[in-house]
Amino acid sequence: MLRAAGLIAMALAVAVPPVGAQTQTTVYVSPTGNDANPGTVSSAPVRTLERAQQLHANVVQLADGTYELSKPLTLTAADSGTTWRAAPGAHPVISGGSRVTGWYLSDPARNIWSAPVPAGLKTRQLYVDGVRAQRASGPLPVKLTSTTTGYTASADTLSHWHNPSAIEFVYPGGDRYWSLSTGGQGPWTEPRCPLASATGTTVTMAQPCWNNSTNRIMRTDTSGRTVNLVGPRTLGNNQVPGYVENAYELLDTPGEWYLDDTAHRISYLPKPGQRPAQSEIVAPRLETLVSGQGVSDLTFSGIQFSYATWLRPSTPEGLSEIQANYTLTGEHGADRQGLCQFVDKGACPYGDWTKEPGNLSFSGARGVRFTDDVFTHLGAAGLDLGTGAQDCEVRGSVFTDISGNGLELGGVDHPTDVRTSGNTIADNHLYGLPAEFHGGIPIVVGYSERSLITHNQIDHTAYTGISIGWGGWPDKIGKPATPNYSHDNTISANLITDTTQYLADGGAIYTQGITGSSIDTGEKITGNVISGQTGHGHAIYCDNGCTYLTIAGNVEYGNQNDWGATHANYTPPADGSTKDPLLIQDNYWQQGDADSAKNEVVIRRNHIITGPRQAPAATIANAGLEPAYRHLLTQQVGGRSAPQAPAQLATTGADGAVYVSFSSTFVDNGAPVDSYTVTAQPGGRSVTVSADQYREPHYVRVSGLSNGTAYTFTVTATNAFGTSAPSLPSAATKPSAANTAVPGAPTDVSVRVSGGNASVHWKPPAAVSGTSPVLAYRISAPGLPDTLFQGHTALWADSSRDTFTAVGGLVPGKTYVFTVTALNAAGPGQPGTAKPVTG
């Protein structure tokens, strides 16, 4: 009806043109067109987007095919009011890459193929038949001891590698358990630093990345905190990287590639059955596909944006991460950037660290709309609607295979003046993110007012699902959060599953900083359905300075923790004697919360459930994509291939066996993972389990091993299109008959009852010498079937962590005494017992 009314209005406008009226004009574009054509009829299209832009039409219609840009499409206020759209039935691709041709077999013994590339080509990504290939990577070839400028190596191996200054060390965060030693700048990060040189056994790291990552200045008080208040002073794991990337010498696994930018040559080790000369192999060239400054009333519809890179991590800046792919950059990144009032010459405002750019980037945009688009095969953030975006909309689009953040809204550089306002992110599917910079997040919002994030489906992420807010960390030292204009933002009816699959200390929805001036104007998190969080954190994460937040009507199950946490309120006139005001009500989840109204935190009418069937069906049905957009869930994006390899292997030995845990594959390349295979070396003994068999225990037991022999393990993932490359190997682990003691009793066992269900809480037993790690917990009560609690949390949580699960079937009025028993490879330990409760 609206479209018909619009056509009638246009007809009237033609019949009686009002003063100042503009005639509707369309420019047609085709990859087979000619820029000498007028472009005003579909039979004579122009060829390039640049020429179409010069013709200043109301509509630019793109025929099917790929539009390879020679430079970014740069839009200004003069381009306002234009709709860029796909022709009916077409699926145009705007590309910043070029096809690599001229492949030849350069190393027959290793089956390595090479091809020439233009001088000056620099890229961090390569795509083979629509699938991201893995840059050559592998474990450290030497032992490293950190120094003030880098490392001393146990051998001079790296100094003999080709082009050492191109080598990159990667420092994964994540949960540390068993043999897995994680690093990063906190478990939510994965920094990267290039080498400057390797001479003999001296490895010198690139500056300023090394200083920004290992020498963040500390406060001079007794807090023990960095001045930035976010993470630690230096990299974890004694500054030792988790793996190495981008060296020709690491090119040893099918599907890997390496760019020698001094010889202007790309090398690729094909997967079985691939023939590089017959494959479509694309190298991204541009860092920006589309940019807009001060534009308004623009629409992009039905277009795929692909093949762009991001080069800053390959420079001496590296990726010195703070959070959400915000980084420290420049000579004074560690001692001044974003430190404002906390140090002399601190750059303001506090928290203004360097944002990851978008491959599509807009600043000060008004009324810019993206509908039915695809953002994929991208090397930075996908889309950045930056500071000052107002009344913009992203709807019905797909975000996947993006190196960093998916969609960025607003920024953190103007907390009080330039406003990001009235934007909508709705009915999008964001999944398998991020593909390279794993601290990235599908949706990241800085300071914002009246923004609506609703009916999106977000699944299979390395870290957090949605992040909103900034600047709350000063409450750690009794100072107020950064004043900002944020208010009336809503995150509602999203379906978020399988988050923190690689890193940790995140959430499905993460928020921090001041969200409004009252509960009425503060942020609302309502009607979301959240499940399957792996790494530790909170499904709904209320972090530092999170003030005036409402959490209501959400459904959560199968998460490490459902919500948390409260913080002392230092926002004037508060003085820290009360908590940041929160309203938490009418949620359905498993951790159980007694009604209370203390210290400005109101908790009421929340329900304990054992799973989604006990939650309101209407909430479950309403979450995620609305019916008109559910076709996005089956839309094929990119090529189909074997999944990415699993990662983050952790091992622990038992008598004649080793238990192997790992991060499940979250990038499946077009088909769900069916199974995992764990292989031991030496000997090659392997065990295959289905993905469903692995999901609950979160480990695989490899038996038949020899006690005292050091084994390493790799894991592959298999889907309908093949088997992944092997993971990086685990740390060496020896089976042993020595650890035969059963675990101790869990402590602080307590039970909360609601609606016939019980939320049972405990703290794991303390680790004791001679005791192997806990593998699971058994929850028991007379008259109820036992519940077995398994999974990542059972393996990772130590004696300081509150752990819980929900048990159903309680009879009203009946008394129950619950026990929790830890189980390890030696068997069950002594139970911990809770006080009696009544159903």
From TrEMBL:
InterPro entries membership: Beta_helix (IPR039448), FN3_dom (IPR003961), FN3_sf (IPR036116), Ig-like_fold (IPR013783), PbH1 (IPR006626), Pectin_lyas_fold (IPR012334), Pectin_lyase_fold/virulence (IPR011050)
Any single GO BP term: polysaccharide catabolic process
Signal peptide annotation: 1-21
Gene3D superfamilies (alphabetical): Immunoglobulins, Single-stranded right-handed beta-helix, Pectin lyase-like
Record keywords: Carbohydrate metabolism, Glycosidase, Hydrolase, Polysaccharide degradation, Signal
Positions of the Fibronectin type-III domain: 642-737, 742-839
Molecular function GO terms recorded: hydrolase activity, acting on glycosyl bonds
Superkingdom field: Bacteria
Pfam families in UniProt: Beta_helix (PF13229), fn3 (PF00041)
PANTHER family named in the record: RIGHT HANDED BETA HELIX DOMAIN-CONTAINING PROTEIN, SECRETED PROTEIN-RELATED
UniProt-recorded name of the protein: Putative fibronectin type III domain protein
Organism for this UniProt entry: Kutzneria albida DSM 43870
